[in-house]
Amino acid sequence: MEDFYYTTKEENQAEFVEKHSRFIGYCKPISTEQEAIDFINEKRKKHYDATHNVYAYSLKNDFIKRYSDDGEPQGTAGVPVLDVLNKNNVVNTVIVVTRYFGGIMLGAGGLVRAYSHGAKIALDASKILRMEKCYNCSVTLSYDFYGKLSGLIPECGGIIDDSNFLENVIISFHIPINELGFFNKKLADATNGKIEVEVVNEDYFPM
Hints:
Blueprint: E1 4-8, E2 12-18, E3 21-29, H1 33-46, E4 52-59, E5 64-68, H2 78-87, E6 93-100, H3 107-126, E7 128-141, H4 143-155, E8 159-165, E9 169-176, H5 180-191, E10 198-206
Antiparallel strand pairs: 1-7, 2-3, 3-6, 4-5, 4-6, 7-9, 7-10, 8-9
Helix pairs in contact: 2-3, 4-5
């Protein structure tokens, strides 16, 4: 697993007009290829009367990258949209750029610029998000140490996910993998080595 990757925060859209052609860019975070296909089909259905519904998507797992020019001259539409994802190192994201032809030919260069711009403004609207590999951790402690731990976790770059107040306090939190060693040292200093952290698993979180 890589230490981090970039994806998009939310589904969003943006549009512009170039020489009377209307371009609508849609962007959405995804986790599977089926989600990408469903999103593309949704936009095709919504814009059944559009001249073109160009798309590209990139998935981190299996290094899947796909695109379609949807009838535009080869290499002038889908590839520029995919290039926007690649140049921004964004994965787990699908972009659809819909075009309503305005009667004026844009030429190959004009199409590349238009579809690139449509993809970029949609991507910007969706906001790029850094996902960092973290350890999911659990720690059990007495109430005497709760104040110290609840402050130490965010101080070391971690985020508390849950706290259960039973006979003892059980704190669940995640922390970037490269910060756990520093956290454990600070924890040992703060508790005289009386408390140990259990690493449950690894996952990616926005950080």
